[in-house]
Amino acid sequence: MLDDDAGGTQARVLAPGEVLPYGTVPVLVTDTTVYGVTRLEETLLRWGPLPKPWLVWVAESPARPVQDARFTVRALEGRLAGVARLPYLPVLRAVKGPDEALKYKDVQTAAARLRRTIEGK
């Protein structure tokens, strides 16, 4: 969703231990569960001197996140460059990969909004 058909030149997943390339904007992705937010908090505690990452907070159901998850993300906002919320997209549960998901209009719209948010446009 962040690569925008750039063939991995705009966004890619880093392997464990791989060095963050200079000038990149790190992005962490988690779902709206308490478990996901707890893992996010643990990651940020070990983040170190790297640039502040963006959080892509993916809704895992049509309901709003539970109170504990919302409060934790609010408390962590000072350690983040920003929080981009991705709405619940049921089609993401039924596709095999990003190429297949981006064939759907609602996913394309959410991806464009996500890119605009992180790029600050």
Architecture blueprint of SSEs:
Blueprint: E1 27-31, H1 34-45, E2 54-58, H2 67-76, E3 82-86, H3 98-101, H4 105-119
Parallel strand pairs: 1-2, 2-3
Describe this structure as you would to a colleague.
The protein is built from four helices and three strands; from the N terminus they run βαβαβαα. With 121 residues, the chain is of the alpha/beta class. The chain has a three-stranded parallel β-sheet with strand order 1-2-3, with helices on both faces. The longest helix has 15 residues, at 105-119.
Keywords:
single chain; 3 strands; alpha/beta; 121 residues
Helix content: 25-40%
Strand content: 5-15%
The average pLDDT is 88
The termini sit apart by 16 Å
SSE class: alpha/beta
Count every beta strand, where a strand is a DSSP E run of 2 or more residues: 3
